[in-house]
Design goal:
This protein is an alpha+beta fold. It has six helices and eleven strands. The protein has a five-stranded mixed β-sheet. The protein has a four-stranded antiparallel β-sheet with strand order 3-4-8-9. It has a two-stranded antiparallel ribbon with strand order 7-10. The radius of gyration is 19 Å and the shape is globular. The N terminus is likely disordered.
Length: 194
């Protein structure tokens, strides 16, 4: 290949990579980690694509619009640190990330009624009310003990709260405290009654 043809091919490839896709906001420069759908007020992606959104399709997810977050978008939100005792090793760990309520607000979620269905990559999908989400101060954890959480462990995202801070939860056996806390979180569906 001559130099001119190589440069033309490289320029065309760079333009294709730089062009924003329908599935991600223009500012996203890395893979989408979390998609919020349902009763949202903002959208930066279109409907579910059965061919390209394979995991969502197989898990029965349906939506007309969504708001997506990459790691940078989540990191740009104010973060909090919690230190719950985890069921996996019985030790307290520092978990850091934005409040789930702030994540939903960024997607344009309004109102106090309804619930959120949180889906993990393994298909686990607990639901919590918006009131409980706020009361228990759920976070979308991005870091565990100061390090980003990898895929294949509890990450890259974990919807979790500090179970030790709530007597009614802390009184339960350690392995019963986190049933509403999906690790490997990738999708949240906001559902308002009515």
């Amino acid at each position: 290949m001559d130099k001119r043809a190589f440069l033309a091919t490289a320029a065309a490839s760079a333009a294709a990579v730089a062009a924003p896709s329908q599935a991600a906001p223009a500012a996203t420069r890395s893979p989408v980690l979390l998609t919020v759908t349902g009763a949202i007020g903002r959208a930066n992606r279109g409907p579910l694509d059965p061919a390209l959104d394979q995991m969502m399709q197989k898990q029965g997810v349906r939506f007309d619009k969504g708001w997506t977050f990459d790691f940078a978008a989540l990191a740009a939100l104010p973060s909090v640190t919690i230190r719950p005792t985890l069921e996996y090793d019985g030790k307290a760990h520092a978990l850091r990330g934005p409040l789930l309520s702030d994540v939903l607000a960024a997607a344009g979620v309004r109102g106090e009624q309804g619930d959120v269905l949180m889906r993990a990559v393994d298909g686990y999908a607990p639901a919590i009310t918006l009131a409980d989400m706020r009361n228990y101060r759920f976070i979308v954890a991005t870091h565990l003990d100061g390090k980003p959480m990898p895929v294949g462990g509890l990450g890259p995202l974990w919807a979790v709260f500090d179970a030790d801070r709530f007597p009614e939860v802390a009184a339960r056996a350690l392995n019963e405290r986190f049933g509403n806390c999906p690790w490997g979180l990738y999708h949240i569906e906001v559902r308002h009654p009515g």
